[in-house]
Each structure stands twice: as structure tokens, then as C-alpha cells.
Amino acid sequence: KLITLLLAVLSxxxxxxxxxxxxxxxxxxxxxxxxxxxxxxxxxLEVGKLTKIHFKVANANPDNAVPAxxxxxxxxxxxxxxxxxxxxxxxxxxxxxxxxxxxxxxFNQIIISGELYRDLxxxxxxxxxxxxxxSKAGQSIITGHMLITNHKNPKFILxxxxxxxxxxxxxxxxxxxxx
Length: 179
What we know:
Oligomer: single chain
Radius of gyration: 20 Å
Shape: elongated
Number of strands: 12
Low-confidence stretches: 11-15
Largest sheet: 6 strands, mixed
Distance between the termini: 86 Å
Mean pLDDT: 87
Number of helices: 1
Order of helices and strands: HEEEEEEEEEEEE
Strand content: over 45%
Helix content: under 10%
């Protein structure tokens, strides 16, 4: 009986161990456009004029999905613009994969966080778009990070095979309204 009990405990612990998954998460091509998707010069954004920021999110691995609960996308808007996109509404980007929240850091930068709540398929790629409002004249920077967190998945541990493509940055300058 003792041997049977020991084998049962070992089998259960082996069953509950997390399995490694290798993927290649990717962020790229941060761009600024007007509301008609015409490219804008990031060095000449206009205060008070709605602006879109676009970038690509992908799982470049053709074989493995990114398991839900293993990563977050974090986008910091800098100090000179605020978010207009409703993160809980139909305007939220990739609502089938990410749940979005907004917060502010001690420097008054808007932080958008997206938690992956559904597996991101192998070979997936999509453009993400947020609408922002340049709020005051001056320079700042937008940064985006795809963070491997392994925070909410009891079955898998995600590893990224290529971490140098998980970050995007874009400097911008807001000018006083051009009346």
C-alpha cells in the first residue's frame, strides 16, 4: 500500500508540473497617423488634434501558440499625450486576445496594459491601434514592451526565443495648435 501511495503522489506531482513553451513574440513598426490613417511626422504632432498610434503585435513562431496568462503588453504614452480609446468598448484593440487597463505612473505618464487572456495562435500577426490626444507642447517618448510574466497559467511556462524584438519606442514632439 505504501508503494502504491508513493507512486500516486509522484504521478500527481509529475502531472501538475508546468510545461515549457517556446515562441517569438514581436512588436514592431510604431507609427503616428491622423484619423484618416495618413502618416504624420512624429516631430510635428499638433496639440489638441486626435492622433492614432499603430504598431504590429505578432507571435512569429509558426508552430507554438502563446498560452493565455503568460504575457502582458505594456505601452507607456509619455508625458505629453493622453489616451482617447475606450479600453472597455468596441474600440479596444485585439479584444479577442487582450484585456486592457489604464493607469498612471508617478511621472503622470499614461500606461496601457494588455493581459493575454486567450491563446495567441502560432504565426499570428495583427496591427494594434490606439487613439491619443497630444496634450501639451514638448517632446516625449512612447515605449511598448511585450513582457513574459507567466503570472496566470498553471500549465505552461513561456520562453521567448528572441527577446530583442519585444520593445518598440517612438519619440514625438507636440507643437502648439496650428491655427
